[in-house]
Amino acid sequence: MTLDTLGVVFTQGNAHEDAVRAFRRAAALRPDVASYRFNLATSLTFLGQVDAAEQEYEACLTRDPRYWKAHLALAQLRRQSAEGNHLKRLKGLLGQAAGDLGGRTYLHLAISKELEDIGQFSEAFTHLQAGKQAGGERRNYSFERDRALFDAIIAAFDAPLEAVVGHGSGEPIFVIGMPRTGTTLVDRILGSHPEVHTAGELPNFGFLLKRLSGSRTPALLDADTLSRSAPIDAARLGQAYIDSTRPGTGHTPRFTDKLPHNFLYAGHIARALPNARIVCLHRDPVDTCLSNFRQLFSQGSQHYDYSFDLLDTGRYYLQFKRLMEHWERVLPGRILSLDYEDIVDDQEACTRRLLEFCGLPWNEACLAFERNQAPVATASVVQVREPLYRSAIRRWKRYEPQLAELIALLREGGVAID
Fold first, then answer.
1. Total H helices, total E strands in the chain
2. pLDDT single digits (tens) 156-181
3. Which residues 6+ apart lie within 8 Å of 328 measured at CB?
4. How far apart are CA 271 and CA 274, in angstroms?
5. Residue 160 phi/psi, 5° resolution?
6. Residue 187 and residue 184: Cα distance in Å, rounded?
């Protein structure tokens, strides 16, 4: 148990090689414990060792066929085919999960993913909806809560940011945007540069803002936190953030922080770290919403509660769009906007633009990001180890009939859709 706990600690610290060693020792001592095999498989996935991870997921399920999340992890590990998939096993287990919200969530999403892989899109969407509905039960999500948060952020930064004396470090490059829009891709491109270290998705900035604000409300970011954060000394916040990233950072001139939802903190980041770079990713609006709806994000974070309902996802996207347009007005020149589709269409031109914005010299290694051997611990863990591909562009066309209400919602919100 101590080794397994240690592996989790290593994982949280992005020390995935150490995590594998700890989980492997735990599994060797207690090969009958399914969770140890699952944790080992997950860390192997982060390191790109897909075949070994597959073996460990199967070992986990041999010991406990109802270890539901292993079924989804296995489905997502590689592209399934009509000849090789897990659909018979997955559908056979649905009856056992009838009274289990977690089981229904993971099984339906695993079935949906594998059906999509083999081109059965209508049935795939049916299972996707069933899985997300099960996952969203008992979460008590209210879109009004998120709307109020966006309103409060915009009110807190209601005018162009005046020059402030924050912390002078130019190390951080914040990669922000809606999840599933290419943030991991850009992070891998930057991380392939010899002067850049990829620090992962760091929750540090939000935690520090909450702590320094003195707010005692349950939410990490809300109106109370925003109002109490106004008097925070910007340089102190910036220094605290840089210090919090050590010792993982500091051994290269720059590092990336790829927490997508840092778009909520762009104003505070600009104040605290005036020399930091902020890069925001954008993607086709319908693809963005569909991809968020398809993904089962961290269930311990309220940031992703919107993603259990397709229309809530669309509403959240419209708020994201509104906020980014606001940041463009009050933080002129501070944020580089990149479109995922542009990167796919002209990788070199976008990479040159990206490196120039970040103050980095040109390096050919950035064009071969798929060769980057650094661990990846995001939803794109498998995809970013492959060269650029076009199959994710306009993926929503496969589901156009099922997305009619979403498309109408986005259009009503002023989004142009081809």
1. 19, 5
2. 999 998 877 899 999 999 999 999 99
3. 335, 337
4. 6
5. -50, 135
6. 5
Cα angle 351, 281, 229; round to 5:
125
Of 97-106, 148-157, 386-395, the one with minimum mean pLDDT is 386-395
3-class SS at 339? strand
How far apart (Å, rounded) are the C-alpha atoms in residues 241 and 259?
A: 14
Residue 280 near residue 343, CB atoms below 8 Å: no
Specify the pTM.
Answer: 0.93
Question: Who's near 207: CB < 8 A, 6+ residues apart?
Answer: 220, 244
Long-range contacts of 150-154 (CB under 8 A, 24+ apart): 150/319, 150/322, 150/323, 152/222, 152/223, 152/226, 153/226, 153/264, 153/267, 153/323, 154/322, 154/323, 154/326
171 Cβ contact partners less than 8 Å away, ≥ 6 residues apart: 242, 249, 250, 253, 254, 255, 276
pLDDT of residue 250: 96
Is residue 398 classed as helix, strand or coil in its secondary structure? helix
pLDDT in tens, 242-291: 999 999 999 999 999 999 999 999 999 999 999 999 999 999 999 999 99
Q: E strands within 229-272? A: 254-257
Sequential DSSP letters for 52-112: HHHHHHHHHHHH-TT-HHHHHHHHHHS---SSS-SHHHHHHHGGGGTT-HHHHHHHHHHHH
Residue pLDDT, tens place only, 288-330: 999 999 999 988 888 899 999 999 999 999 999 999 999 999 9
Does the bond joining 401 to the residue before it have cis omega, within 30 degrees of 0?
A: no
- Cα torsion angle, 136, 139, 143, 147, sign: negative
**Which residue, among 348, 389, 386, 378, has the nearest Cα to 366 in the 3D structure?**
348
3-state secondary structure (DSSP) of residue 168: coil
- The pLDDT assigned to 163 comes to 78
Edge-to-edge strand list for the sheet holding 172-177? 196-198, 254-257, 172-177, 277-282, 335-339
For residue 197, the surrounding DSSP H or E stretch is strand 196-198
Q: How far is C-alpha 97 from the chain's CA centre?
A: 28
8 Å CB contact between 336 and 278: yes
